[in-house]
Amino acid sequence: MLLLKGFFRKKSTIVYLIIYTIIMTTIIFSFFLIKHNEKIINDITKKRSYITMTSSKDYYNEIDNIKNVIGIERIILFEPDNDCNTFKHQSYQIFNLDGTYIEYTNDEPKINWEDFSENSNSIIYILPDKEHKLKDNEIALSKSGLDYVDSVILNNLIGQNVSFIYKNEKIEFTIKCFYDSKNKEMSISENKFYELLPNSFYSYKIYIDDYSKESETVQQLESINDKENIEVDRFHIYDGIDNENASRDLINIFEIVSFFAIIMFVFVFIIVSKNILSDEKKNIQIERMLGYNKTQLRKYITVKILVLVLIALFISIIISTIINILFLK
Prior knowledge:
The chain has 8 helices and 11 strands. The chain has helices spanning 2-9, 11-47, 60-64, 151-157, 190-196, 214-222, 241-289, 294-327, and strands at residues 49-55, 69-80, 92-95, 101-104, 124-128, 138-142, 161-166, 169-179, 186-188, 202-208, 231-236. The strands form 2 sheets. A 6-stranded mixed beta barrel has the order 2-5-9-6-8-7. It is elongated, with a radius of gyration of 32 Å.
């Protein structure tokens, strides 16, 4: 204990402690900043991202038991009725093998079916209405993705009929209103929804907590039971892409900073350890006169180096935690 007290009274030891603390604080706080920006990216992704699953059996309870799942919505899948004149498909070109193509051009001032679908086959996700008091023959449409549409066109659609294909049969509703939603979807009355539900496949919109574990969660969903007729898709409609890109750039910067700080710590550790050994050689004769043998002296030198590093680490954790609480929480 006396040897440690004497060691920490030296000015050189205080300098080493300060250097270690600065480097370790840089490393630890860089990790805090990386985690902070990863959380920002995850929060942005969670706002408008989800997983869909369709199966021939009801796996609601099994999905709910997956740790990363934080929300489940039952949905019904409608197909667009191509004979319906209320909406049209967007313009497209299909190239044939001989180099010619079929072209469809939608020049009419109408909304596209694709404006209500997150997937390439224009499947419409139907949810039970909870706020618009829809009648069984009415439907409410999400305005997500309709920013380009003039409000006059939207208002003119209210009261018009729109038809879908469901279980190979045509089903028709009257448009009652448009509503704000973060996702492309439509809503029908709860009564009509649960009337149709037993006749459909079981489909779900699944919301997860941590998108860094999305692939793992998808694997868990796909492995439910015997995988019989299970289809899983992921949808990411990024909101706040500039903030996300900025956070990714910061993560890259802090990863580089932490990498070089670790290299610097190793380099400094070697130099400081050599300096401590060199300084301690001057005290060996005095310590030998006090009765310490060579083995004891080597042990005490090792203890001094480790205690120095541990104290610096403890101080660095405290400093980094305080900064993290004050500026990142």
